[in-house]
Amino acid sequence: MNKMGGSNLILLSFALCFLVTSLGASEGDADPIYKVCLEECEKSGCVGGKCFQHCNFSSDGKPIDGPWYLQEPLYQKWKQWDCGSDCRYHCMVAREEERRKLGGKPVKYHGKWPFKRVYAIQEPAAVAFSAISLALQFHGWITFFILLNYKFPLRPDKRPYYEYTGLWHIYAILAMNFWFWSAVCHSRDFELTEKLDYSAAVALIGFSFILTILRAFNVRDEASRVMVAAPLIAFVTTHILYLNFYKLDYGLNMKVCMVMGVAQLLIWGIWASVTSHPARWKVWLFNVGGTLAVLLEVYDFPPYKGILDAHALWHAANIPLAYVCWSFVRDDAEFRTLTLLKKMK
């Protein structure tokens, strides 16, 4: 269930990201006034009264004029803000201020809403919520580990009785990896961070699909697990390599994620309908909450105060859902452990 809902939300987030990134032009960047501002900025390095030091450097980092000690600071290079990025941002801010004074509504620029940078972070709310989700995933994983190893009885070989322990540990690592790169990508999205974000999400969704099949169909035999996992791991690995080293095909990636996500939804929905598991209500709770959260992706609206938009609220919705997810995992571990101990008596 954890994967089911989480993967559904992640793949829909992906769909939005892919559609946004694939847009070549939006109303904002097609605006003649915005275009003129960009042209002037790229020539002068200034927008209004604000000038950018790094616009006085060539592509290899050498100053066009002036002494060597005026070279661009290291932190500027690290965050990848270049002259073009700053020109686009500040021209957008200036144009949106003019639009606001005239009573107009915000429009998208290069496929994205006009966000306000906070300490050089592009989408501060999405970054903050991603970080909180990362923390909750870590908390859920630690509580799961403590429950199995210190509160439940162990086998004679000191291993937990819960048959899916190792799989959930892998899931936790992949989930934390995804939320980390999600925060990084929303801090500053360029090709490398996008690839890392998309790769992390595909890896999580792919492994979630495997875990869905193994848990829903109660596959415990190692040979059977390998037979299920091997082709799916090969497919996901090939897809990630394709995205990173051949073509970052947003449309194809969206389709792949959608297929795996919908399949998980169907499997978990059937499982929750037929099982007598005492925590099955949490599966339904997570699915309902996840579906409502998806509406935030469908109802796309401009960021409030340049900070909080529908996508950021989607990130916020993942915070309580992450708690419900790991709550189900702990209940499942307890249910399976007690069931096995009863059979041994």
Walk me through this protein's architecture.
It is a single chain. This protein has 2 domains: 246 residues, Rhopdopsin 7-helix transmembrane proteins, CATH 1.20.1070; 70 residues, no CATH class. Helix content is 69%, strand content 1%. It has 11 helices and 2 strands. The protein has a two-stranded antiparallel sheet with strand order 1-2. The two termini are 30 Å apart. Keywords: Golgi apparatus, GPI-anchor biosynthesis, Membrane, Signal, Transmembrane, Transmembrane helix. Involved in the lipid remodeling steps of GPI-anchor maturation.
Give the strand tally.
2
Question: What number of structural domains do the residues give?
Answer: 2
- CATH topology name of the largest domain, in short, is Rhopdopsin 7-helix transmembrane proteins
Order of helices and strands: HHEEHHHHHHHHH
Proportion of beta-strand residues: under 5%
Low-confidence stretches: 1-24, 58-71
Question: What descriptors fit this protein?
Answer:
345 residues, mainly alpha, Rhopdopsin 7-helix transmembrane proteins, 2 domains, 11 helices
Question: How do the strands and helices of this protein lay out in sequence?
Answer:
Elements: H1 2-22, H2 32-44, E1 46-47, E2 50-51, H3 74-78, H4 83-101, H5 124-151, H6 165-187, H7 191-216, H8 222-245, H9 250-274, H10 280-298, H11 310-344
Antiparallel strand pairs: 1-2
Membrane topology: Multi-pass membrane protein
Keywords: Golgi apparatus, GPI-anchor biosynthesis, Membrane, Signal, Transmembrane, Transmembrane helix
GO cellular component, one term: Golgi membrane
